[in-house]
Amino acid sequence: MTQPALSVEAALARIVGAVEPIEDVEAAPLLAAANRIAAEPVVARLTQPPFNASAMDGYAVRAADVARLPARLKVVGVSAAGHGYRGQLGASEAVRIFTGAPLPDGADAIVIQENAERDGDYVTVLAGTIDREHIRPRGCDFLAGAVGIAAGRRLTARDLTLAAAMGHPTVVVRRRPVVAILATGDELVLPGETPGADQIVCSNTFGIAAMVSAAGGEPRLLGIAKDRPESLAAHVEQAAGADVLVTVGGASVGDHDLVAPVLTARGMALDFWKIAMRPGKPLMFGRFGVQRVLGLPGNPVSSLVCARLFLVPLVRALLGLEPEPQRAMLAHATEPLAANGPRAHYMRGTVSQSADGTLAVSPARSQDSSLLTPLATANCLIVRPIGAPAVPAGTAVPILALDF
Predict the structure, then answer these.
(1) Residues 304, 297: contact at Cβ < 8 Å?
(2) What is the pLDDT of residues 353-388, one digit of tens each?
(3) How far apart are CA 309 and CA 304, in angstroms?
(4) Per-residue pLDDT tens over the stretch 118-153
(5) Cα-flanking dihedrals φ and ψ of residue 329, to 5°?
(6) φ, ψ dihedrals at 253, nearest 5°
(7) What predicted TM-score, i.e. pTM, was given to this entire model?
(8) Domains, the chain, ranges and CATH?
(9) What is the DSSP letter of 152?
C-alpha cells in the first residue's frame, strides 16, 4: 500500500474530527474528583457565610455607641467561632468577638482589639474608625442556588474546595475515557523480567499510560502481543469496550508489521498510516465502530512524542475539552540548525531563561529516536517545520515545552 504522508496538522484533524464527548457520567467523591471533568454545574446547597461574621478579633458594638471616643462599654458576653452569642446587644454594650464568629443581634460594627482597653467587665474604645470591612456580610461569598462551577471544567484543588464549601460530598463528572494500550513484538519483555539475548525491556507503554492519566483518561495495559496474528488478535480482544486502542510497534506496513493487517481483517476501518514528522513517521489511525485505534511507532521517543501530539488531544476531545493551544514559544538557538527536509522535526532540546527573560535553547547532541536519556533530560521540543532553512546560532526558533 502507498499513501502520501500527512502533515501533523492534517493527521490531528482526522484523529479528533467528529469526536463526540463521552456522555456517561458518575458521582465522584471529592477525594477522587481532582482533575476530573464536571459533567453538570455545581450549585450551592447553602449560603456562605451563613451569618454576618467578624473578620477580626475584637469587640462587636453598635456604631452609634462609638461615634465619639473614648467610649466605655459593658462586655456582656463572648462570640467565638462555632459558639455565637445568643443575646441581643443593647445600648452601651459590647461582646468580645473572634474571627469567624457570628455578629450578635444588634451589633453593626467591630472594634479591633488593638484599639480597645479591657478593664474587667468593661472595655474602653480609645481610637480608630468604624470600618464596615471588619464584618463579612451573610452570603458575601455565595448564596444558596448560585452556580459555583460550570459544567465542562477540569476540577482543580480550588474547585473542590468550593464544592465542599457549597455542601457537596460528591460531584458529577464525565466518565474517564478508557485507553487500552498494547505493546507488540517478540523482542519485548516486561520490566523486572530478564531479557533474552535478542530482547529488550518494554518501556513505552508505561510512559503512555502516565500521559493518559494526566490527560484525564483511564489507561489499561494489555501486556505484550507476540509477532503472530493469533497472539495479536487475542490481545486485541481484551480491548473490547475501550474508547481508544493504542498499539505500540508494528504501525508501519512492512513485511513484519502485523498490526494493520490483523486489525483490518477484524473489521478496522484504516484511515492513514504515515505522517510527515520525525520522530514518528509510521503512525496508524483507524476505527472499530466508535472505538478509535491509534498505532504508535515502536521507538520509545517516537512513541512518546506521537502520544503527546495525537493521543492526548484525542483524550481531551472525548472529555469534551477544547483543543489545547500549541503553546509554542520562541527561543534563540545556541548553535546553528541544519536545513530541515520533508518531515516536520521535533528535536529534543534544553531551554533556559536569562535574567532579562530571554529564552535560549540547545538541541540534544543525539536525536536518535531509540534513546530515552536525551528525552528524560530535555525540557522542550524544538519544532523545525517542513522545509525549514538552515539558521545560524542566535536565531529565534519555535519550541514546545515538554509536559510529560
Answers:
(1) no
(2) 988 889 999 999 999 988 999 999 999 999 999 999
(3) 9
(4) 999 999 999 877 777 899 999 999 999 999 999 999
(5) -120, 165
(6) -125, 35
(7) 0.87
(8) 8-23+176-318 (3.40.980.10), 35-48+147-174 (no CATH), 53-136 (2.170.190.11), 329-401 (2.40.340.10)
(9) T
